[in-house]
Amino acid sequence: MNNLQNFTKGFFKENPVFVLLLGLCPTLGTTTSAINGMGMGLATMVVLVLSNMAIALIAGAIPSKVRIPSYIVVIASFVTIVDLLMAAYFNTPGPNGELSLYDNLGLFIPLIVVNCIVLGRAEAFASKNGVGASAIDGLGMGLGFAMALTILGAIRELLGSYAIFGIQLVKSDGMLVFVLAPGAFLALGYLIALLNKIRTSK
Amino acid sequence: MNMVVTLLLVTLLASTALAFVYQVTKGPKQAADDAKKNFAIKKVTPEFDNEPGKEAYRIASFDGGDSLVCYPAKKGDHMVGVAIETWTMNGFSGLIRIMVGFDTTGNIINTSVLEQKETPGLGTKMTEPFFKDQFNGKNPESFKLSVKKDGGDVDAITASTITSRAFCDAVTRAYNSYKKGGNNE
After folding, report:
1. Which among A158, B17, B30, B61 is least buried, having the fewest CB atoms inside 10 angstroms?
2. In this predicted structure, what is the pLDDT of residue B24?
3. CA-to-CA dists, residue A63 to B7, B9, B91, B115, angstroms
4. Cβ neighbours of residue B5 under 8 Å, at least 6 residues apart?
5. Rounded to whole angstroms, what are the CA distances from B108 to B46, B170, B171?
6. CA-CA distances (angstroms) from residue A186 to A177, B68, B95?
7. A with B: how many residue pairs have Cβ under 8 Å apart?
8. pLDDT digits over B89-129, tens only?
């Protein structure tokens, strides 16, 4: 598999959310709006790239029986580092009191630890490939994840609050069910069905 | 044996890295937290020229529980208002911390949510002007701090009555505690 395929497989062919169905907990939980979904997706991408690279480096030295605990320690460390760095350097409120990036995403960052995409890529790809290829895989998968979460978030925001990226389209409250958890399942189910239809008809 | 050594090494390396990052980020994180708090104080009080952060004092909560922090805002020697860091445990996901500013007659000047874990897209709307600005300029003596469903004067957020009630609870705690404990300057 060349680097380009490595990079693009996360978008459609092996999209973590729509095809592999990995990491559904943060997917369903954080996609109440497009911007939340995108934030979670991008934060996951950063951790995914870092952890993939670190694991590709050390995989050869780790006995296979303790590889899962080792990977989890590596992933949890990177998540904590990202959390600390964001709390320190992306935490100043804007001049008019806009929430800082950390205030907007702070809630989701610890959730990345329990995201099985990160462990899944470590196990399925990074432990068997080089550092460069693993970084590309992490970037592609992360972008695919971010894209999926943004799409799902946009649909839920559109139906749930008649807005998109925070811009109110219709002055009304929207269908509340789409902001709540059942709406997440509904929207995701229909999206997967639609994508499966497109894939099988080709 | 090899496995034990590997795990030990991995965890050792990870904890060293974490300790290092923690040390580096401790200062900037504290500074950012202070900046946020000062910003909230400024937002909820009239113009002042003292340093409320340095003159902060604690008052007991009127119904028990954690004490509240008061930040007095003064102009010259005159007290112009006070910012109170208040809390409630009644949020949909527990703790909510709010900064509430009162002027010297007890009118609410403004509010600013410091910390909350409410449902995104529902309870989080309490940080938006359409909800929180309805408190501005109101005096809790005449403005009943509970949602209309409960016979009060507050317009609740649609589908987030619990959050709306919690917000009222926090503001009530600030007002009642301050009236009972403070305002003696």
Report:
1. B30
2. 93
3. 9, 13, 47, 44
4. none
5. 11, 13, 9
6. 9, 43, 30
7. 88
8. 998 888 999 999 888 888 889 888 888 878 766 787 888 88
Beta strand pairing status for B108-115 and B78-91? unpaired
Read off the pLDDT of each residue in A21-42 and give the average, rounded to a whole number.
82
**Sheet with B78-91: strands ordered across:** B57-59, B68-75, B78-91, B94-103, B108-115
State how far the Cα of A189 lies from the Cα of A197, in Å rounded to an integer. Answer: 12
Cα dihedral value B29, B30, B32, B33, nearest 10: 120
Average pLDDT in the B11-31 region? 92
Please name the residues in contact with A8: beta carbons below 8 A apart, sequence gap of 6 or more: A140
List pLDDT tens digits, range A69-110. Answer: 888 999 999 999 988 888 888 777 666 556 677 776 667 788
Q: Count of alpha carbons within 13 Å of A14, Cβ hemisphere only?
A: 16
Terminal CA-CA length for chain A: 22
Residues A146 and A44 sit within 8 Å (Cβ to Cβ): yes
The span from the CA of B87 to the CA of B106, in Å, is 18
Q: Residues A107-144: pLDDT tens digits?
A: 778 888 878 888 888 888 888 888 888 988 889 999 99
Tell me the pTM: 0.76
List CB contacts (< 8 A) between A111 and chain B: none
pLDDT at B18: 93
Nearest in space to A45 (alpha carbons), one of A17, A5, A71: A17
pLDDT digits (tens, 9 = 90+) for B84-99: 989 999 988 889 999 9
| Contacting A residues, span 117-146, partner chain B, CB-CB under 8 Å | none
Interface residues on B facing A, Cβ-Cβ cutoff 8 A: 2-3, 6-7, 10-11, 14, 17-18, 21-22, 24-29, 32-33, 35-36, 39, 43, 112, 117, 119-122, 127, 158-159
